[in-house]
Design a protein that fits this description.
heterodimer, A: alpha+beta, B: mainly alpha, globular, disordered C terminus
């Protein structure tokens, strides 16, 4: 690592932050990370991050849930212990399908939702009892923090950032 | 300001004229006597087509009981079939004769209800936007107001249908038949008689007029006062008055819409009932209404008449189209599954009629109203592309026309249904009326509701996840 110094610029408004990110990107500086107390819509696009693939995983988790529901209802209600559903003892999964639609729907949603959350946690590398990574506790309250790696251009960056409405600018060593 | 172009005016008048001629023709060619009807029946069975044969099955199982009450539960029908045995053919011919006479009426009624309902739900959606004090939709207010102008002509035609039904000129509603409430008559129907506190002609006609009066009164008021808002400059006094009146309308609308769906649609099958039917009709009309708002908006924007509208507004309308398509399917399935599960004859008749005679439109409608919009409009990026919205919207509107079609037709024309001159002409006629009413109303007011306090918010509306590509997008942000 040639440089372990980073600049931390603090903002106290999401609109100001958005404009600041755009200004920094316009000057072709790399933004390492932005820490926010709440999700800011459009921030990922402004930072130039690749679009999330979480939606694609959600689709496949949903398909998995649907398949599981079909297998489960068929195994429980038709194969293992055949049951008379609403006076329709046809013992055919398809003919009793309307009764299983709520189960298929619920398990599709259940799988998609839970597995998507777990995937998100894994991708974000967070898990129970993990120590927080954000460099300043104020980013969990009312401040936004933009982290920019420094390559011998502290003065230039500081000047740029102070123009964008940063309320505090610190140069720190990153370990 | 927008000008109702001569081309469009000619188109709408041509549609009205063409439709009127077609409707007149279908009334003219409907059989006038039983003999004429018998001839057609003989022709149909000699052709041996799908309709003729499947019709026989349905008649055996379902009809017969009283010629005017088309749907009875099966057990009752069978009991009477035995006693009526030898009169079967004559009774059958008379029954089919009534269905054929009903056909042009039913065709007009389906198209009328479709357009009246869409217009009504546009009005209700508009009222909901005022009640919610929503910011995004303000630039669409004049579009919605213009569409509601169609409420006046459709209400007048609805009153004609109501009066002719009450005078027994048309026989759309089987419970209005002769002797239904008379215990000494062979047509006596104890089930309907038990509902006579609600199902009686004077009550029905008065209620029908009251619904139309409520809706038209609100429309007249809010259109006038919305234009007043533009120049009022009274610190939001007019705006608050409009808000309060809209709250009252939403309340009255929910009640009158529910009762309207029982009186005008569920009453066609007087033995059958479903407690979520009002919601089901509401969902069908609401998704169609939002599609129509999107269509008119896209058209007017392409003509440059809506400078404040950007891609995010289209995106939001399409999200509603998508969402309410799912909502409609949810209600469709909820109604179907409970009836399928319980399997009570008096409830299943509704679906038996639709799964036998109307299988194709009934199942096609599920694909058009659910599967297609889901697949086409799921992607966020597609929701603001006019092409996708128009293609999806056409399928949605077609699907919900079919939905109304299979709500009305099985009870009124039974196996005699077809999609021919009568149905197409009725659609043309009401489409022409719709275009004329909507665009001439839109030309009469400033397309931007200048006095609305949320106008600026609406003009700057930008859904964070999409890029603006369409007309007027350069003006914002």
């Amino acid at each position: 690592m040639e440089s372990s110094k980073v600049i931390h610029a603090f903002y106290n408004d999401d609109e100001v932050l958005m404009d600041a990110v755009k200004a920094v990107k316009a000057e072709h500086h790399h933004i390492e990370e932005v820490f926010c107390p709440f999700p800011v819509h459009g921030l990922d696009k402004a930072m130039g991050l690749a679009p999330t693939r979480l939606a694609i995983t959600a689709f496949f988790y949903g398909i998995t849930g649907l398949s599981f529901a079909i297998w489960m209802t068929n195994y429980m209600m038709i194969q293992d212990w055949p049951q008379d559903i609403g006076g329709k003892p046809s013992f055919s999964w398809f003919e009793n399908m309307p009764a299983f639609v709520p189960i298929m729907f619920e398990l599709t949603v259940f799988f998609a939702a839970h597995l998507m959350v777990i995937t998100f946690y894994m991708r974000s590398r967070i898990w129970p009892f993990k120590e927080a990574e954000n460099p300043d506790p104020r980013t969990t309250d009312d401040h936004f923090l933009m982290e920019i790696p420094v390559h011998d251009n502290v003065d230039e960056l500081t000047a740029l950032l102070s123009k964008t409405g940063a309320v505090e600018i610190n140069v720190v060593d990153k370990h | 300001m927008y000008q109702f172009s001569g081309k469009l005016k000619t188109l709408s008048l041509a549609l009205i004229l063409l439709g009127a001629i077609g409707i007149a023709f279908s009334f003219w060619t409907a059989p006038k006597t039983i003999e004429a009807a018998k001839e057609i029946i003989a022709q149909q069975s000699s052709h041996g087509d799908g309709h003729g044969t499947s019709h026989e099955e349905v008649t055996k199982n379902e009809h017969h009981a009283a010629e005017e009450t088309h749907h009875n539960d099966e057990k009752e029908s069978h009991a009477k079939v035995e006693s009526h045995g030898e009169h079967h053919d004559d009774a059958h011919a008379e029954h089919v004769f009534h269905q054929m006479q009903n056909k042009p009426w039913a065709a007009v009624y389906v198209a009328l209800f479709f357009f009246l309902g869409i217009t009504l739900l546009v009005l209700a959606f508009y009222a909901s936007q005022r009640v919610a004090q929503s910011g995004w939709s303000v630039v669409l207010f004049r579009v919605m107001e213009a569409i509601t102008a169609n409420l006046v002509p459709t209400s007048i035609i609805m009153i004609v249908i109501v009066v002719t039904a009450a005078m027994h000129i048309n026989h759309l509603f089987p419970w209005m038949g002769e002797g239904i409430f008379d215990p000494t008559s062979p047509n006596y129907d104890p089930i309907i008689d038990g509902k006579s506190w609600w199902m009686n002609v004077p009550g029905w006609a008065i209620r029908s007029v009251v619904y139309l009066a409520i809706w038209n009164a609100y429309r007249w008021f809010i259109r006038r006062n919305s234009i007043k808002e533009d120049t009022a400059n009274d610190g939001g006094k007019t705006y608050k008055l409009n808000y309060n009146v809209s709250v009252g309308f939403i309340f009255l609308f929910m009640i009158s819409e529910s009762m309207m769906s029982w009186d005008w649609i569920m009453g066609l099958d007087p033995h059958w009932f479903s407690t979520l039917f009002a919601w089901y009709v509401l969902a069908s009309l609401l998704v169609s209404a939002l599609t129509v708002i999107a269509f008119v908006t896209i058209y007017l924007r392409s003509k440059g008449a809506l400078p404040g509208v950007n891609d995010s507004h289209i995106h939001d309308l399409t999200k509603f189209m998508f969402g309410f398509s799912v909502f409609w399917t949810y209600l469709w399935f909820a109604q179907f599954m409970l009836i399928w599960y319980a399997d009570i004859p008096e409830e299943t008749t509704y679906f038996v009629a639709r799964f036998t005679e109307y299988k194709l439109p009934f199942l096609a409608m599920l694909v058009m109203n659910f599967a297609f919009p889901i697949l086409l409009l799921l992607n966020s990026d597609f929701k603001s592309l006019p092409w996708f919205v128009v293609i999806g919207g056409f399928v949605i509107l077609g699907g919900h026309y079919i939905d109304i079609f299979v709500m009305v037709m099985p009870a009124t024309v039974g196996a005699q249904w077809s999609f021919g001159i009568a149905e197409i002409s009725s659609l043309f006629f009401f489409l022409g009326v719709f275009i004329y009413a909507t665009f001439s109303a839109f030309a009469k007011a400033n397309p931007i509701p200048k006095g609305n306090p949320f106008l600026v918010e609406s003009e700057h509306f930008h859904y964070y996840n999409i890029e603006h590509r369409g007309e007027g997008s350069g003006d914002h942000h």
